[in-house]
Each structure stands twice: as structure tokens, then as C-alpha cells.
Amino acid sequence: MMKTHTLWTVLGLTFVGFVVGPGSLNAQDRDQKADDAESEVLAVDDGIVLTVQNHHWSDMRIYAIKMGSRFRLGTVTSQTSETFELPSYLQADISEVQLLAVPIGGVQSVISPSVYPAPGDEVVWGIQHNLALSGTIIG
């Protein structure tokens, strides 16, 4: 007579399962959602919000440049605006941040002047048809 072994018995492991009633799962979900909502509110208050208004004819790839490193934030379609939340490592505690827009399929890109955003700031960057007229506002 040949014995068959499952992977669990070969490895010497025992699988133990628990059955949890739906009432306790709902309570856990509510507690978790409340904790997530509270941490999200704190994160939004501490973060830096970047709004890019693209008035150019091309779709643009948006980057943040800090201390010589380039970080991709996303893409903004032509004639629309997008909002990004800058990661905490892009806060300007030590050095400035510049924004770079590279047109998809184009050759001429635009870079913003140096900005020094602090936690809680909102940065608005308007990319114009004439890229030399693009400008930033920190508020």
C-alpha cells in the first residue's frame, strides 16, 4: 500500500484555519476604515499638492527634479489639468525642486524656476502654448 503525502505533510507543516463570524469582520473593517481615513487626512495636510494646467497642444510627461535626480510624477493630457501629490522626499527642506515637462512626441521641453514648497503648500504650474511663458505659483 502506497502512502500519498501533500506538500504540507512533507514539509512537516500543519494548516490551521479559523472561522470568524461576519459581525466581528464588519467591526474590524469599520475600525480599519476609520484609521485609514484619519491617516489620509493627516497625509493630505502634510503633503504638497501640485496642479499642472496644460494649455499646450502636446500631452506632457511631468517630472520633479531635486538635487540632480529626476522623479516622474505622471502625464497631463493636452488642454486639461491634473493634480499630483508630491512624495515626502521631494519636500524642499534642504534644496529646491524644479518641475520638468517633456512633450510626448515633441522635442522642446520646459523647466520651471526653482521652487521651495513646504508641507501643506499647493503648487500650480501653468504650461502655455508658448513654453517660455509657462509659470508657477505657490500658495
Report the mean per-residue pLDDT as an integer. 74
Q: Strands of the largest sheet, in order across it?
A: 4-1-7-8
The percent of residues in helical segments reads 10-25%
Shape: globular
Overview of the structural elements:
- The protein has 2 helices and 8 strands, in the order ααββββββββ.
- Strand 2 (60-66) and strand 3 (69-76) form a beta hairpin.
- Helices cover 21% and strands 35% of the residues.
- It has helices at 7-10, 22-46, and strands at 48-54, 60-66, 69-76, 80-86, 97-103, 110-111, 122-127, 135-138.
- The protein is globular.
- It has 2 domains: 7-43; 47-138, Sandwich (Immunoglobulin-like), CATH 2.60.40.1430.
- With 139 residues, the protein is α+β, with helices and mostly antiparallel strands.
- A 4-stranded mixed sheet has the order 4-1-7-8. A 4-stranded antiparallel sheet has the order 3-2-5-6, with no helix packed on it.
Short summary:
The chain is an alpha+beta fold and 139 residues long. 21% of the residues lie in helices and 35% in strands. The protein is built from two helices and eight strands; from the N terminus they run ααββββββββ.
